[in-house]
Amino acid sequence: VLSLELFNQDYWQLPADQVAKTGIEKIKQSVSAALA
User: How many CB atoms lie within 10 A of CB 9?
Assistant: First the structure.
């Protein structure tokens, strides 16, 4: 199970699509590292 938690208040100031793209990239990096 993966959960994207956005408690960083800096993200709250950004457009939702930018935050989503950043979140997806970070999740991809985490999954890649876990499967390596």
Answer: 7
